[in-house]
Amino acid sequence: MKTKLGLEENLEAMLCYVLGWITGILFLLLEKESEFVRFHAAQSTVTFLGFTVVSVIIGQLSAIPLIGLMFMIINALIAISACIVWLVCMIKAFQGERFKLPIVGNIVEKQIG
Predict the structure, then answer these.
(1) How sure is the predictor about 1, in pLDDT bands with cuts at 50, 70 and 90?
(2) Is the pLDDT of residue 113 over 70?
(3) Hey, how many other C-beta atoms are within 10 angstroms of the C-beta on 102?
(4) Is 61 inside a domain boundary?
(5) How many other C-beta atoms lie within 10 A of the C-beta of residue 11?
(6) Which of 42, 43, 47, 91 has the lowest tally of Cβ within 10 angstroms?
(7) Host domain of residue 43
(8) pTM, rounded to two decimals
(9) Chain-centroid distance, C-alpha 74
């Protein structure tokens, strides 16, 4: 099914994840008709904005002497997790699946419908 932007829903939903929260916000603003795309756009925005904020905070904590190494390791694990989530979300969206991430998916579903 074509969206307002003229793309197939599954392709547009996948594109919501390409640049994380940036493309999530972009597609939330541009796509007004497809709830499928809007769901993925909102999920991308909330998920990857959250990853970004947490990563910045942990990155700042890694500058603390003595315990900084622990925060560097935590930040690396967060980055790996974000990459895995990113890939899974893009694949599921392209397959046409309304894949809900734990916690975030439920929050987004209540907001988008």
Answers:
(1) confident
(2) no
(3) 6
(4) yes
(5) 14
(6) 91
(7) 9-112
(8) 0.91
(9) 19
| Main-chain dihedrals φ then ψ at residue 3, nearest 5 degrees | -100, 180
> Exposed (0-12), middle (13-18) or buried (19+): which is 21, by Cβ within 10 Å?
buried
d(CA 82, CA 71): 16
pLDDT in tens, 27-72: 999 999 999 999 999 999 999 999 999 999 999 999 998 899 999 9
Answer whether residue 1 is part of any domain. no
Strand partners for 8: 2
Q: Is residue 3 one of the residues assigned to a domain?
A: no
Instruction: Give the count of domains, the chain.
Output: 1
**4 within some domain:** no
Please give, one letter per residue, the 3-state secondary structure of the chain: CECCCCCEHHHHHHHHHHCCHHHHHHHHHHCCCCHHHHHHHHHHHHHHHHHHHHHHHHHHHCCCCCCHHHHHHHHHHHHHHHHHHHHHHHHHHHCCCCCCCCCHHHHHHHHHC
